[in-house]
Amino acid sequence: MADMEVVDRVKSWLSWSWTWYLWALWLFLVVLLIYLLRTPLRVYENMNIVAMFLNTLTPKFYVALTGTSSLISGLILIFEWWYFRKYGTSFIEQVSLNHLGPWLGGVENNNNGNNNTNNSQNNNQQSVPECKVWRNPLNLLRGAEYNRYTWVTGKEPLTYYDMNLSAQDHQTFFTCDTDHSRPSDELASVPSAVMQRAWRERNPQARIKAAHEALEKDSECATAYILLAEEEATTILETERLFKQALKVGEANYKKSQSTQHLGAHYEAIHRRDTNVCVYVRRRLAMCARKLGRVKEAVKMMRDLMKEFPMMSVLNIHENLIEALLELQAYADVQAVLAKYDDISLPKSATICYTAALLKARAVADKFSPEIASKRGLSTAEMNAVEAIHRAVEFNPHVPKYLLETKSLILPPEHLLKRGDSEAIAYAFFHLPHWKRVDGALNLLHCTWEGTFRMIPYPLEKGHLFYPYPSCTESADRELLPAFHEVSVYPKKELPFFILFTAGLCSVTALLALLTHQFPEPMGLVAKTFLNTITSPFNFLVEKLEGVLPSNLWHQLTRL
């Protein structure tokens, strides 16, 4: 937050500096014009005085001038480059549009302008789709996995925004309206109220302390075991043990509330919370079994969970099942899952699209050769595989860089943005071994994935098989991913004009400063010749005007 305040102050200072600089320049030109008109000498004589002044300048002046210009343009270039890398746009362009645009364009009617602005903003809000953030179905454990990375590297793999979203999810899953309806003196001694406070805590140690406090008040608090399993346990075995305790308590609460859910909204809310607890814990236990190598057990747990709670599709348990089946190399079962969930009416994901591409590539990848394919053409099976890869790349163009290991992977976030860099990291982190296991699959991907972009030359305006690529993914991914990761941007943005302009200005002025310092006399002569060349058309125009206009016209104008 402190960094953002500093950036806002720098932006405000630069915008005001730019504005005052333009005002000062305009005032200087006005004063100079008044001086030239009020002076009793003729303009031509004034120009001679200026020429005499320029002739008396020494090479040291030119060295100082060009050196200062190079330094200032270099500082502007550094700030512009940093601002472009951080926010994806040019600061000077923003200042020009926001501050100079109204001056240059003018405003005909303030009221009409405000109405048009409001209408355009409303239209933009309706036309631009909101970038919805989804919970990562394969998210890691904070205590046993994320914290271990922090202990080794000293870097935080999760952002505050990501953890805040998780806290909101936990409050939604594991609390209900009845927790708020108790008297304030009773809330202090109720474990559910203590856990509600724990989910809102920012400090991990405070959350863990609150979970222990809830267990002291009631040893049958399932959500307290969940928090300790997620954040305090340092090994997968310890995590699994705590989740089993949570499941034992959660199933008892679920059976108890199931028999009373029809008595009213109060009991229905309690049953909904107990259902969320059971589903969450059983899914986490299946993931622990998968991490510990008991993959068949994990697959059975996931299948049972999906069969028993078919309405809990929001957790995307089928993506956990697909990953576990790929680990077993049960490709026929994977195809059966895809046949159910790769439907036009269901939301897509990188797991769905790239797994479909992997299965089709598996049939032809081991015999695929780009040289042979260029001579005889693609077969039907190869064409289907290439089309599946193009479909997957169009949905999320960031994934191939991670699968081909041309971009380094980091730990996946707890939330992801579909079609964004965060989803690509989450997919590649778990599915890269499955692509490596299929012989030739990565080679086929390497040879064909870039051909997708020829079919969608304007991805932000029109897609081929999917909707146009959303333009809001970059800003959302920057909030979800840690600062040390370089966010992948699509489509690749070109460098703004002002970065190129300041880079050229800095280079040219630095070169002139160096040449003037090394060769003062020749460069001084070049500078004088250049200045005389620039002023000669103006001098010629003044001479012509003096020959046409009366000789006392300038004196008459100065008396006005």
List keywords for this structure.
two-stranded antiparallel sheet, 560 residues, 2 strands, single chain, 27 helices, mainly alpha
Can you put this structure into words, describing what you see?
The chain is mostly helical and 560 residues long. 71% of the residues lie in helices and 1% in strands. It contains 27 helices and two strands. It has a two-stranded antiparallel ribbon with strand order 1-2. The longest helix is centred in the first third of the chain and has 37 residues. The chain is elongated and about 110 Å long. The protein starts with a helix and ends with a helix. InterPro entries: ST7 (IPR007311), TPR-like_helical_dom_sf (IPR011990). Keywords: Membrane, Transmembrane, Transmembrane helix. Its main location: membrane.
Shape: elongated
- What series of H and E elements makes up the topology? HHHHHEHHHHHHHHHHHHHHHEHHHHHHH
Task: Please estimate the helix content.
Answer: over 70%
Give the low-confidence spans.
35-44, 106-129, 181-188
Number of helical regions: 27
Radius of gyration, in angstroms, nearest whole number: 34 Å
Mean of the pLDDT scores?
77
How many beta strands in the DSSP annotation?
2
How far the N terminus sits from the C terminus, by CA atoms, comes to 59 Å
The structural class is mainly alpha
Fraction in beta strands: under 5%
- Main sheet: strand order: 1-2
How many strands, what sense, and barrel or not for the largest sheet? Answer: 2 strands, antiparallel
